[in-house]
Write the structure tokens for this entry.
Amino acid sequence: MQYVNKRENREEGNKITQAYLQEIWIEDEQRYPVDYNESFKKLPTKANSYYKQMTQVLLNNQNHYCCYCMRRLTGKGDTTLEHIIPQTADDKVAHYYQRDDFPILKGYIKLSSLFSHEQNPSMAKLPHTVCYDNLVASCHGKFPTIKKGKEFETDGHSCNHPRGVKRALPLYLLTNIDTIITYEINGSIVANPDSPLYKEAEELIQSAQLTWETLSDIRALWYVLRHIDLDQIVAESGNEQSRKDLIQDHLYLTDFSDEKIKALTVKFTKEQYWECFLLYDWFHSYHWNAA
Ligand SMILES: [Zn+2]
């Protein structure tokens, strides 16, 4: 995971929320009826909604990577906005997130249900369903579709979709996230048992389903190809045969079992899986411990 610095791009993000609030203001009642699902996604126009504007600011803030799995994102159909404090949270749930570890969540956010019903609410705390501080860009978490019987189904999900409203503290908001959650050369994602936030890291990994097999395979393959230039990897993988050669030749240098080498080769020779693999190039420059 990468550290997400919410102090950057904040002014830009807050401007979007404030413009949205101005637009929904009810003069007669002197309040803002925040309606995330409808108005935030439709105003000021559907083509350039506040939701879409916020997505771009968040992607810039996160270097265009999913906050959970590190998939590269374009913002065009591959990105969803994840609510750190879930949309449906009540006071008790919000309290779990608004702790000293996360001063931004604690200091600048109010539940939308409370904010909406107040008359002339202060802008010091913005409504949680639409404010920059409580939003992060996440991938849709879909993996390639594969044939199961007669049907085609996605090979699983990670990130926003499985997380739903499950508890997931935003550990990526901590500057030392890369010591709390690490990756091993076999592709597994690991919560550091020495971290005081070990339990929370485990919970985050499970909630976003980051142990998903295809994700682990992708990370393992990046480790295997870590010494080859990125340009070369792309250039040498233009068709099925060249992909197969590239993958197989390097897998044979590992101590993976023959069975695993075969399975990985078959999987990533397929175009859909290879395209998906390339979206995870963040792992190419990851500081693998055993490297
Ligand atoms: Zn993701």
Observations:
- Strands lie at 79-83, 109-110, 126-127, 135-139, 145-148, 151-154, 181-183, 189-191.
- The radius of gyration is 21 Å.
